[in-house]
Amino acid sequence: MHQNIPERFDQSELAILTFEVNPSKERWTDYIDILPTNEVEKSEEYHYSQDKLRFTKCRSILRKTLSKWVNEDPKTIGIKMGGNGKPKLDTIHHIKFSITHTEGFAGIAFCKGFEVGLDVENSNRDTNIDKVSKKVFTDSEQIKIASNSDIDAKKMFFRFWTAKEAFLKNTGHGLTLDPKKIESYLPEANEKYGTYECLQLKGSSNLRSIDISCPEPYIMTLCASKKALGKIGVYLI
Known about the structure:
By secondary structure, the chain is α+β, with helices and mostly antiparallel strands. The chain has two domains: about 15-120, CATH 3.90.470.20; about 125-210, CATH 3.90.470.20. It has helices at about 35-45, 50-70, 130-135, 140-145, 150-170; strands spanning about 15-20, 80, 85-90, 95-100, 105-110, 115-120, 185, 195, 205-210, 220-225, 230-235. It has a five-stranded antiparallel beta sheet, with helices on one face. The protein has a four-stranded mixed beta sheet with strand order 4-5-1-11, covered by helices on one side.
């Protein structure tokens, strides 16, 4: 289980683990052996088995990975919820992480010393693009989405969506910040990274968005400080 987890975590690396979540091939109980009691109890609070599976598999991979990197028992690694509801490592190790999942796929991003945000969406998801765009995207973002054909517009929609979600996860603001206050500039064909502008948040211009390669139809975006952008390792496990 989880055979492709990297053995070591380079301090200059941003590591992203991506993986399938398939209820037809696995059960949520397959992943509870290394989870502490409180996380097993948390998984049991979910009504649907696919939600239980997403939670237990993500937490199992998180703990298995951290156990390798910090040389601690996976079950006893301290993970607590921050004031903004974002889980974080409760130890002296300066590893930041971000968990994301959608129907069928999930990912965890790790970074040393800098906050990180990761978001993934299934671009086949039935979405009223026009209606949602007016609620969450700036005028310029809406224009860019509308300038594409229907298929490309939907992909562009989810690229902007994941970029904003990754930004909010990185900063820890979640739903407390109006997404229309965030201007996302996606990377052009000759650019590695996209940028952000948010007048409400000092230092937001130092954050970058990175498109993370993953299987179709999933779209994944990472948000990290430009100071953290050394080597980026993406591992499909």
